[in-house]
Design goal:
Layout: E1 2-7, E2 12-19, E3 26-34, H1 41-59, E4 63-67, H2 76-95, E5 99-103, H3 105-113, H4 120-131, H5 140-155
Parallel strand pairs: 1-4, 4-5
Antiparallel strand pairs: 1-2, 2-3
């Protein structure tokens, strides 16, 4: 099965396409969907929606794994924006009939490193090890999306090696 991991953000949304295979897990594609700050939010959300739809069309994932919203009371506006991005991704998945699985960041970290509060560098090393990546992704958004996809596949009982 192929999973599309999504690390949502209005300015930068990380994505990763990961496949669970008996001979080892494989990352097919990863990167970031970036939106310009000067654009109005509806336009930015539309761009994210369109790019997620393109990824779904290109890779035909059986599962989209998205990070649950983390809300810091100091930044209520950021929480609202994150909710809007998650909504855009969820609507794209619904319209294209792909199952969505939401996972807390601490659960992803725990699944890959054994620690729910692991730093991003530890998650990056774990992702690189599990996927046997020669080059680590340069964006932590893409790495987080890979970690989400791996954890989602594992939760579904489809991951062969975590």
């Amino acid at each position: 099965m192929i999973a599309l991991g999504i690390d949502p953000g209005l300015a930068v949304t990380g994505f990763a396409v990961v496949e669970a295979l008996p001979e080892g897990n494989q990352a097919h594609d990863w990167g970031c969907i970036k939106t310009a700050r000067e654009l109005p939010n509806p336009k930015r959300l539309g761009l994210i929606y369109q790019q997620v739809c393109k990824l779904i069309t290109q890779w035909s994932p059986g599962l989209i794994v998205i990070e649950e919203a983390f809300v810091d009371p100091k930044y209520p506006r950021a929480a609202l924006q994150l909710g809007e991005v998650r909504g855009s991704v969820s609507v794209a998945a619904h319209n294209m009939e792909v199952e969505v699985l939401e996972i807390k960041p601490s659960e992803v970290k725990r699944a890959l490193t054994g620690k729910g509060l692991a730093p991003k560098e530890e998650v990056q090393l774990a992702v690189s090890r599990v996927l046997r990546l020669a080059d680590q992704p340069t964006s932590h958004h893409a790495t987080d999306a890979m970690a989400l996809a791996l954890t989602g596949l594992s939760r579904k009982g489809l991951l062969y090696h975590l």
